[in-house]
Amino acid sequence: MMWIRCLCAWLGMIGVGSILFHMTMRRASQFLDEGPMIFFMATSIMGKVHKHPFTQRYANVYRLLVAIGSLVLLWIYAVLEAYEIFVHGFTGLIAFEVVGGVYFYSRGEGYHAIAALVSIIIARMFWETEQRLCEKYPNIWPLHVVFHLVACRSSYHWLQFNRSLVVAEKKKV
What we know:
This protein is mainly alpha-helical. The protein has one domain (2-172). The chain has helices spanning 2-24, 27-46, 59-80, 83-109, 111-133, 142-172. α1 (2-24) runs antiparallel to α2 (27-46), α1 packs antiparallel against α6 (142-172) and α5 (111-133) runs antiparallel to α6. The longest helix has 31 residues, at 142-172. The relative contact order is 0.11. The mean pLDDT is 91.
């Protein structure tokens, strides 16, 4: 349950960081929004490595690599101040999590993971549309609100997916 508590803490930090960023539109508060997003996904990945048959033997090594990779991603983003690095890095973490999760989906524990994935793809479509068109059509700003709502739905399902894995593991014991 420690991993689930950590995910909940990261999610709370994302919420606070997002509020601060949208209130101030400052670079420092943007990192308080996006840093926890990276660590949310990294924590989700690290919470599963000991359960996956390909990573069980070297679970701590995988965890260390994911932690270092996440810190390096955030550091490069901070130094270069290139938002695209965050977007593509975060998307890469999601892709890594999805590919690694295929084992769990095949065991019937994937409903929430698929719902989370579909939700984040839909959220990203709203976000991309708003980002690309907001300058020309400023009245489409509500799409950003829809992005946040659908991304929140994705986070909920991701938490439930991780919780279902913990519950399944406890049933085995």
